[in-house]
Amino acid sequence: MQYSILLFVSQYWPCERHRAKEHSIYSNRATQRETCLCRINRERRGGAAHSSAVHSSYYHSVVSEQKGEDEESRPEQRGDPQLKGIVTRLYCRQGYYLQMNPDGSLDGTKDDSSNSSLFNLIPVGLRVVAIQSVKTGLYIAMNGEGHLYTSELFTPECKFKESVFENYYVIYSSMLYRQQESGRAWFLGLNKDGQAMKGNRVKKTKPAAHFLPKPLEVAMYREPSLHDVGATVPKPAVPPSKSTEPAIMNGGKPVSKEAKPTT
Fold this sequence. Notes:
This protein has about 260 residues and is α+β, with helices and mostly antiparallel strands. The chain has 3 helices and 14 strands. It is found in: Secreted.
């Protein structure tokens, strides 16, 4: 009887040697996991230029979700900065940094240290951002014809959806306008000469729409006060000297250029 009990216990109760072996196996697996994580972190650091776009987009989406939850649980305090955004440069795949000139026009620059290329990316919704120039304080907006312009006030035309595309590039599309028939979104974009393009002519699969955010710092922002479209006179986003299309003023209506007198 005693022999049977001992035999039963020896079969189902692990001995010290068996427990030591299991501990060794678990330790080796933990070491392998740590080694794998270290290797992944090194690879991520090596590809920081590409991963910054993903981090930026994910950061804004998380902040936007937290913002929506917090608004239900606490009273609004518009006077205090509550939104976490970033100061960043937007590098277009065409080889230019998006910049806003002092006159409010938009184009691209090769200078990676220009203050005109600094923008505040402010989360104003779930994966929705406002793009504000640090230097001028103007917002980038897109009107109903697809033209880009800059606005002193924050309006629904200043809202852009931020989406991560292939190869970690980010695309920005208008939250208000899109193709009526196909439903295709209108995108922020620069052409090969660094000029701002009409949103309805930019395809998300082309380099013109692909931007790589290069964050410089995290900043706190007050929630912009939303105004109606047309509350302010928009400034043309395309420099008249470089534009191949009419300048845009007065709520997005094209202003015809004066014809030069013939001699």
